[in-house]
Sequence to fold (174 residues):
Amino acid sequence: MKWTLSQLQKYRSKDFPIDETVNADEVMKLNPEIRGASPMHVTGRADIDSAKVTFHLTIKGHLILPCSRTLVDVNYPINVETNETFLLKGPDYETEEEVHQVKGDVIDLNPILHEILLLEVPMQVFCEDSSEEGAPQSGKDWEVIHEQDKQDKVDPRLAGLAQFFDQNDPSSDS
Fold:
């Protein structure tokens, strides 16, 4: 996704739609945790004026990451919306948002897309699949308890206490 400034200036007051598929294999080289990446579908538009170019983008695809428990491959969906601004003139343009300087005569979005994808990688990913290759759900003297199950069960050691207040106290009958 590269454009020269002269290509972009042709669309200065016009609609500049973006609908491209980007190969994200470079991200796997930058982060060894990423085992695979689907081609990312990038859609959006660009607003072009004499001082800056602003890209309004949506990035969709998925990354293959290792499960934090079992190291099984997990498809992690990516759906990111971002705005990236490139300044065409010097750094004298003041703004609150983060901006990029144009180097030379070309705007290249690929390094920025790779950076966005790297920032989307979570600290931990868990596979939801309880198949054989996923995490075991039980073993000798243990089993995985989900929070709903835990709330519904009463500890059998304390079951007698639940009936304690249902009985009448014999000393208060007099």
Notes: The chain has a mean pLDDT of 79.
